Amino acid sequence: MWRMLSALADKSFERSFGKTTGYRARRPLVKAVPHRLLSYSQPAHAPGANPPDDGVLPTCATLSLRHNLPMSAPKMNPAPPNPTPPRTPLPSQVVKEDEPILVAAAKAGDVSAFETLVGRYESKIFRLAQNITQNREDAEDVMQEAFLKAYEHLDGFQGNSRFYTWLVRIAVNQALMKLRKRRPNQVSIDEEIDTGEELIPRDIEDWGPSPEDRYKQTELSEILNGVISDLEPPFRIVFQLRDIEQLSTEETAEALGLSVPAVKSRLLRARLKLRQKLDRYFKRSENK
Amino acid sequence: VNCKTIVIELENYLDQDLDADLRASIEIHLAKCKKCKLIVDTTKKTIEIYCNADPAPLPQDTRIRLHDALVKHLRRARA
Predict the structure, then answer these.
(1) Rg (CA), chain B
(2) pLDDT for A219-242, tens place per residue?
(3) Phi/psi zone of residue A185: left (φ > 0), alpha (ψ -120 to 50 degrees), beta?
(4) How big is the CA angle at B68 (ends B63 and B73), to the nearest 5 degrees?
(5) Phi-psi region of A134 (alpha: psi -120 to 50; beta: other; left: phi over 0)
(6) Given this model, what pLDDT does residue B31 score?
(7) Cβ separation of A17 and B35 shorter than 8 Å?
(8) Quick one: CA dihedral A130, A132, A135, A141, positive or negative?
(9) Helix (H) or strand (E) holding A148
(10) Least CB-CB distance to A122: which of B4, B38, B66?
(11) Which residue has the higher pLDDT, B10 or A25?
């Protein structure tokens, strides 16, 4: 029986990932280590503390609303002046509305539904893992472990929050364990950081409306990756979860075992530090 | 509200987590203070640029290894 199921699983995965006959995984999976932060239950949030779990991931459009941000052209979803006309949903929202169905199917044993979820989030989870561990091999291990644990513990996912949020929490736990194992003497995410620095930036330059457009996509990616890599882990990880993965402050606090004020404090510093570091690339006076 | 308040409250301001009075006071200050306006605008832009940056596609070899790991796990789980 298991052979049949495995064959089905193989065929199913091959449809998504391509045929891999004869290939042997280079990197063995690292056995998971229990960790105090590891929890697969849903976070208990104060009523009203989090956005409603509507099965739709917050997009940059919703984040833009949250941050009062102008939205960039390719992903723009302008708020209609009159809320009554039906708004055309973003393609990403349309796709993600099927997430609860996919999760339910995966829980019922539908491997292809889980594959779809993996395919949807593999790049994001890999980026998350890379930004936390700052190591490609570790990031790959973390990604594998996160998806395997998610599959293994699907029954524990109650659907009270977004599947992606739950997956991010698993990946963060795996990544933090990896980080601590590799660099035990490195500053811990739990420690309070006293930078002693003045928060008010001294030299402020105007960036203009779309400074990122001055760079090619690959160049921009290198700049963004380089700048965020320079941040100390406590700041980098909070920024990653809050502003890139778009977890709420409470979700970020719970995922990292920090208090809400600690998350807010680190986020403020992370944003200001990144802003400062990007200044040299984006200021108007910079002639490229 | 002064320049220090703007920086201290920047996170709450950007996340729209301020009471209306303080928010209004901050906006009055921002209308007058070019330096603070630039801090707010460039910090917003920082978040926006990172938020809009799509992750690079997973390298094919990494994807294959992920596939193999999942298939192996399924086999084990169903054994």
Answers:
(1) 23
(2) 999 999 999 999 988 899 999 999
(3) alpha
(4) 125
(5) left
(6) 95
(7) no
(8) negative
(9) helix A136-152
(10) B66
(11) B10
Q: Give B68's contacts in chain A (Cβ within 8 Å).
A: 20, 23-25
- How far are the Cα atoms of A49, A58, A74, A77, A144 from residue A61, in angstroms, in the given order? 20, 7, 11, 6, 30
SS3 content of chain A, % helix, strand, coil (to 5): 55, 0, 45
Q: What amino acid is encoded at A57 in this protein?
A: L
The interface residues of chain B toward chain A in range 12-51, judged by CB-CB distance below 8 A, are 12, 14-16, 35, 38-39, 41-51
Residue A188: its pLDDT value, please?
56
Query: Is B24's pLDDT higher than 90?
Result: yes
Question: What's the confidence (pLDDT) of residue A145?
Answer: 94
Task: Identify all chain A residues contacting B24, using CB atoms and an 8 Å cutoff.
Answer: none
Of all residues in chain A, the one with the smallest CA distance to B39 is A204
| Residue A43 confidence (pLDDT) | 36
Cβ distance A126 to B58 less than 8 Å, yes or no, reads: yes
Kindly provide the ipTM of the predicted complex, given to two decimals.
Answer: 0.88
